[in-house]
Amino acid sequence: MTTPIDLRSDTVTRPTPAMRAAMAAAPVGDDQYGEDPLTNELQARVAALLGKEQGLWLPSGTMANQVALRVLTRPGDEVVVSREAHAGWHETGGSAANAGVQLVEVGARGVFDVAALEAAIKPRGLPVYPPTTLVEVENTHNRSGGIIFAQDEVVRICALARSRGIASFLDGARLWNASVASGIAEAELAAPFDLVAVSFSKGLGAPGGSLLAGSRDLIVAATRQRRMLGGAMRQTGFFAAAALHGIDHHRGRLAEDHANARCFAEALAAQRSVELDLATVQTNIVVLRLRAGAIDAATLVQRARERGVLVNAFDARTIRAVTHLDVSREQVERAGATLVELLD
Ligand SMILES: *Cc1c(COP(=O)(O)O)cnc(C)c1O
User: Fold this and answer.
1) Of 152, 134, 205, 195, nearest to 174 (Cα)?
2) Which of 194, 220, 255, 265 keeps 20 to 30 A from 34, CA to CA?
3) What is the residue with the minimal CA distance to atom 3 of ligand 1?
4) Ligand 1 in reach of 16 Cβ (< 6 A)
5) What are phi and psi of 250, to 5 degrees?
6) Fold match flag (17-249 vs 253-343)
7) Could you give phi then psi for residue 123, rounded to 5 degrees?
8) Which ranges of the chain does DSSP label H, i.e. alpha helix?
9) Nearest C-alpha to atom 15 of ligand 1 is from which residue?
10) Domain boundaries in the chain?
């Protein structure tokens, strides 16, 4: 069988020959002694790109989020997040297990406004309430279909948080996509937040790695938490080389992924059995609902697989498709046509 067109996630990409060459040629050292040259370069470069004092490489975005929670909260605290935030839905309970916090979801479709944050903040000084100590924004928002968080609202949210002594964290696993699609520089998107996470293994196509950026003090604390969680590695330069290559060569092309996602979404939105608001297709993710009476998600996923197209089912009626470096416009068109045929 020919290679399937894999739209399950932008994490399925394999390093390109040029990325593999950069990895193979990487000079490396023991990062626990601060002696891995490319990790040091990557941390400095991405911290500067995000307008923060210092950066810290971590093996995964999940660990970056968990470390951020442990640095910015104490067990028993409450954290305000968007509906269906990655931290609550895709980290297998880690926020409760590792940081001991409870997450409160607010807003709708992956975003919320400053009034929703204000309403969710528990009053301080009453012994029955957990203290609200952190607000987290996810930009772009994964489960809501790669939605971009409006930056003027981000500024208001973080200003309110600061005025109430609440820390702020940006889960920017796909901040690169948000920046390319909005035309707003990463540093501006990151500016209102105390701590920011970005990923190298999604749109940039590296085989692994994320980074936390913030003030020197927060990164010192994060470095300890990374080690405590078992994420302190040694010759990380092989990963850093891949990340640097992705930043230099794959960041600009994200616009292609966005155009491909739109092309796929337009084909499917025209179907009567599909519920898909094209206004939600802002970057490289398409989340669509199958109407009652239409084929269910599990069956559609199975039949599409038999025809060489891979997509994910989020629930019985929700499908997610993600475009990336390893799928061309032609393949995305073919995948769209295959799903349309199966829906008929
Ligand atoms: C993928 C993702 C993560 C976690 O990254 P991993 O490297 O897969 O652990 C965190 N946040 C968001 C929004 C993501 O989409």
Assistant:
1) 205
2) 194
3) 61
4) no
5) -115, -5
6) no
7) -60, 140
8) 17-24, 37-49, 61-72, 86-89, 94, 114-120, 151-163, 175-182, 186-190, 216-228, 237-249, 254-269, 297-306, 329-343
9) 142
10) 17-249, 253-343
CATH of 253-343, one of 3.90.1150.10, 3.90.640.10, 3.30.420.40, 3.30.2010.30: 3.90.1150.10
SS3 181: helix
Extract the tokens encoding 154.
């981000």
Structure token digits, residue 150: 């409006």
Lookup result for tokens 């923060």: 52
Per-residue pLDDT tens for 10-68? 999 999 999 999 999 999 999 999 999 999 999 999 999 999 999 999 999 999 999 99
The reported pTM is: 0.97
Look up the CATH architecture of domain 17-249: 3-Layer(aba) Sandwich (3.40)
Over residues 67-112, the pLDDT tens digits come to 999 999 999 999 999 999 999 999 999 999 999 999 999 999 999 9
- In testing the pocket of ligand 1, which one of 171, 283, 320 has its CB within 8 Å of the most ligand atoms? 171
Q: Kindly report the CA angle at 76 between 114 and 58, in degrees rounded to 5?
A: 80
